[in-house]
Design a protein that fits this description.
The protein is an alpha+beta fold. It is built from eight helices and 17 strands. 21% of the residues lie in helices and 33% in strands. The chain has a six-stranded mixed sheet. α3 packs across α4.
Length: 341
Amino acid sequence: AIFDMSSFAKLLVKGPDAQAALDALVANRVPRDDGGTVYTGLLNERGGYESDFTITRLTDDEFMIVTGSAQAVRDRDVIERALQRMAPRPRCAVVDVTAMFAVIAVMGPQSRALMQAVSTADFSPAAFPFGASREIDLGYATVRATRLSYVGELGWELYVPVEFAVGVYESLMQAGAAFGVMNAGYYAIDSLRLEKGYRAWGRELSPDINPFEAGLAFAIDWDKDVDFRGRAALLALRDAGGAAAVTRRIVSLVVDAPHTTLWGGELILRDGAPAGFVSSAAFGHSIGRPVALGIVSRRDGAADKDWIGAGAWSIDLAGERFPAQVALRAPYDPDGARVKS
């Protein structure tokens, strides 16, 4: 499928101190090689999420941040305020380039074959691994292809100068006819990312949710030689037990009600008692049932895997309760084999 993801915000951080400044801000390690991409959280001093995004290293002094559609102004402001508080002030600037690039995402099991049909670049797993970003030829255009996915399938995000967007789209659709290519929109993205358990800032992630509660501690680089923002709070949480000790967790839910759907905000019950709420929901067409992410809490101990597995869970939808499967792992391809194939 072809997704138009042009509304995703794009920020450039440019200057000789850009890498060092970003390393001091984000929890993960900023890429050291040109064309490297990482997913990371931008945290506050309490360890909560001010944002989450990907960082791609374009050159040694230029990095591209790709964040949510509604977050360009806020994320730029958070980053610039943090830079102003650093001493000495880093020699770098933040530039909003959202309007300069369309983002056309090519996603699905046939995406490698389609990309190979429209470009002379090598898209084999060895030449173009997950997380890599390259400039490639595509029709008359030179575009940046980044192998990432927000829909849980093999694919590439194409960052296309806006003046070439129509030509690139037409080339993909023409060549894609042989592979059954189709257009897909943001409702499809939301359904697919929920089946994969991908979190979204403003829904699952917030300034009050930390990476251990979110199940995203894998995106923290504890060995960075810089005291990034929120590190002290996260170390205290880690020393107290980390994900095994927190009393609140983000979980995936599959509801045994194939005839209906959820909208978000519904009450989650454990053994008949209120235990949390649905933060995002959609119908999961791959699994044939409503799928959601939610936040559940435990009053008398850690909200760990054993506590979650021992409960009888249900969702209250407009006064009617439906049984639900609740887990810390995604209901669809939890190991990510399809994304990294």
